[in-house]
Pyrroline-5-carboxylate reductase
Amino acid sequence: MGSALLEGLANTHEFELIGKNPINPRVSDLSDKLSFTLVHSIAELIKLSPNFVILTTPASITMDIVSELTDLDTNSIIISAVAGHSYEEYHQALPNHQIVRCIPNIPVSVNQGTTSLFIPENISDSSREEILDLLNKLGETILVKEEQLSIVGTIGGCSPAFVDVFLDALADSGVLEGLQRKLANKLAASMVNGAATLALKSGKEPSLLKDQVCSPGGTTIKGVVSLEKNGFRNAVIEAVKAANHN
């Protein structure tokens, strides 16, 4: 997720970016590609006094990293993009710092992401605006309660992979029926993009949009019935449940 966030922010050409990572050839290559400053320790990072620190570390080591941020300027805003640790844990470790939690998804890399965001009450109005301005450059930001982050993060964060499975299957069906793979992939991705854009812009329930396409006795409703017979809807629900209760 760290590389996806860096790519999205780099696309805006509005920020001086810093990445903190142990010496790693892949990260060094990414630094060259995106032109961000690469540091190898928290001490180096703190000296640079960043406006924001975005945590994307594995949950198992996140609190160890947080404990090293005690000397970070309290004007720096910490944004945790890590699942598995509550705001209260961060606040106890860094009681004088401004900390928020968010769950972004991979499409932030192309500034079309969906980021669920929890902002605690002690965050100032000016900091709130700065945080939203930053994250909105990566796509859409949805404000939620902290207890909603898990399920919202699952739907927003895991579902791109579920959609990719659907896209792959849809493209396979096109290849089966005679389309070239490249054309089938493009057609499937374009269709999903268009359907999602229509859902967002129209504000209509997905079921109503589905009904608009399904003519009585037509080919689309027959396909929908086949999806239902084969457990498509239940498979999606079970996938979300499995991801959310791991």
Remarks:
- The longest strand covers residues 98-103.
